């Protein structure tokens, strides 16, 4: 694993550079997945694309871009109909999104892991403590078989992207380095990836973390 180098950004130009580096790293991570969890080229490229777009939205939060992103996902196969879109208040959204704007990130140490294959959870654990939340837009509405969102249809695959980031410990107001967790789901070959869960993992399980708004 490469030595940690957390990139601190001042503007969106630097965000684009970081996302470009992240794209290269994720492509390599997808290509090196074990054979029993490997993704075809189309599926792998799709996962990298949506992960990079979501990370860009986190680092360079823009209400219009996010609304357009939501609109591009809703209505696709395996998602909620457009009328299910949750109304968003721009002022409240900007306040929430500002917390992670330009947060330092280490794109060169990002990882990709399979969590579910064909609806079955794989054996894995996150070291330390993890805080996750379901994506509030319900893009993945027809992949669930239970109200809690954990039981998936037999066609559902879930992969997670882990990216080292630096954020603020809510209890001590100090800076801590943790992992951003973005999980994506798809149902069947050829269908698009959809956001499923977003969260943070603290390997030391010591920080009070504020989950990302994504």
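Q: What amino acid sequence fits the structure above?
A:
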């Amino acid at each position: 694993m490469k030595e940690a180098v957390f990139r601190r950004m001042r503007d969106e130009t630097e965000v684009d550079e970081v996302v470009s580096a992240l794209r290269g790293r994720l492509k390599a991570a997808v290509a090196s997945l074990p054979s029993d969890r490997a993704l075809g080229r189309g599926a792998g490229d799709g996962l990298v694309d949506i992960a990079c777009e979501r990370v860009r939205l986190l680092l360079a939060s823009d209400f219009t871009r996010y609304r357009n992103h939501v609109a591009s996902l809703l209505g696709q196969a395996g998602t909620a109909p457009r009328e299910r879109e949750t109304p968003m208040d721009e002022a409240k959204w900007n306040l929430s999104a500002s917390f992670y704007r330009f947060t330092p990130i280490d794109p060169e140490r990002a990882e990709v892991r399979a969590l579910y294959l064909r609806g079955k959870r794989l054996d894995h654990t996150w070291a330390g403590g993890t805080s996750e939340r379901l994506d509030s837009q319900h893009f993945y509405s027809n992949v669930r078989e239970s109200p809690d969102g954990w039981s998936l249809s037999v066609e559902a695959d879930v992969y997670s992207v882990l990216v080292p980031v630096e954020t603020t410990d809510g209890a001590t107001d100090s800076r801590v380095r943790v992992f951003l967790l973005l999980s994506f789901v798809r149902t069947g070959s050829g269908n698009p990836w959809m956001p499923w869960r977003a969260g943070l993992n603290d390997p030391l399980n010591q920080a009070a973390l504020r989950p990302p708004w994504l």
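Q: And what stands out in the fold?
A: The helical segments are 12-31, 41-59, 63-73, 90-97.
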